[in-house]
Amino acid sequence: MSQVNFDLASLRSFVTGMDMGSFAKAADKVGRSTSAISAQIKKLEEQAGTPLFRKAGRGLALTDAGEMMLRYARRLIELNDEATAAVRGTDLEGWVRLGLQEDFGETLLPEVLGSFARAHPKVRIEARVARNADLVTRLEANELELALIWDSGPASTYAHRVDGRADLVARPAMRWIGAKSLNWRVESGEPLPLIAFDGPCLMYDAARAALDRAGIPWRVVFTSPSLAGLWAAASAGLGLTVRTRYGVPPSLIVFDAKAHGLPPLPQLSLMLLRGSPAVTPPVERLAELMMDSVRGFTNPLESEAA
């Protein structure tokens, strides 16, 4: 039996199409025509020797083989890109001081920073997980080169406070998140139990404003200085908290706002701020990896569980 060598370009188109929810959109991103992408996917199925897609209503969904292929494709592409970066960046030296939100502490830190450290062993990384205000203050004090922050506007309201550049990474919607066992319903007339940070928080402010506009009474039942505390309280069924799709633990669900009589929540801007306009190659490389990782993030909990 001859050995099959999967085509990396086809695997990349496959992964990009699944991440973006459309192979037409993937065509623009990878710089190929839609017909070329279709040919790549057909070739991939031929190499696999089994269908990767099945009909699902008017669209297509992955078969079991397709799901397995997607997992391996991600690993192969990651290894390929890591090898490319390592070969081309063997002389990359310096240091990067990075700040990011707790939402990404368990995803970006091991994935992106681990890959970066392996590819660029001569670059020293110092990472800090903190809240917005602390990160922006440290950027202003030249204690960080990069910071991943939340912002309430379509463009950064923090950008004018630092000398560097602000890139819009994503604009995820905020979600009502809690334990499946939570039995609060708006028709009960009982105040909505809220779980929130114990200091200034854009998401808590947005939740409170949305509830007030909808005329829904609420009360804060738990506060914590850490995101881990919010997740623990929500998992215990004490109430609802408000976050985005990033970093939600499997013990919690995203509540269907309409089904539960909850008001819709707005989007937040996720910004990557640079502390200086004179960006060094290590800083720029890490910034690229972070943006690619966040933009490619998917979470099964995003499917609005009831």
From TrEMBL:
<dbReference type="InterPro" id="IPR000847">
    <property type="entry name" value="LysR_HTH_N"/>
</dbReference>
<keyword id="KW-0804">Transcription</keyword>
<dbReference type="InterPro" id="IPR005119">
    <property type="entry name" value="LysR_subst-bd"/>
</dbReference>
<dbReference type="InterPro" id="IPR050176">
    <property type="entry name" value="LTTR"/>
</dbReference>
<keyword id="KW-0805">Transcription regulation</keyword>
<dbReference type="InterPro" id="IPR036390">
    <property type="entry name" value="WH_DNA-bd_sf"/>
</dbReference>
<dbReference type="Pfam" id="PF03466">
    <property type="entry name" value="LysR_substrate"/>
</dbReference>
<protein>
    <submittedName>
        <fullName>LysR family transcriptional regulator</fullName>
    </submittedName>
</protein>
<dbReference type="GO" id="GO:0003677">
    <property type="term" value="F:DNA binding"/>
</dbReference>
<dbReference type="InterPro" id="IPR036388">
    <property type="entry name" value="WH-like_DNA-bd_sf"/>
</dbReference>
<dbReference type="Pfam" id="PF00126">
    <property type="entry name" value="HTH_1"/>
</dbReference>
<keyword id="KW-0238">DNA-binding</keyword>
<dbReference type="GO" id="GO:0003700">
    <property type="term" value="F:DNA-binding transcription factor activity"/>
</dbReference>
<feature type="domain" description="HTH lysR-type">
    <location>
        <begin position="6"/>
        <end position="63"/>
    </location>
</feature>
<comment type="similarity">
    <text>Belongs to the LysR transcriptional regulatory family.</text>
</comment>
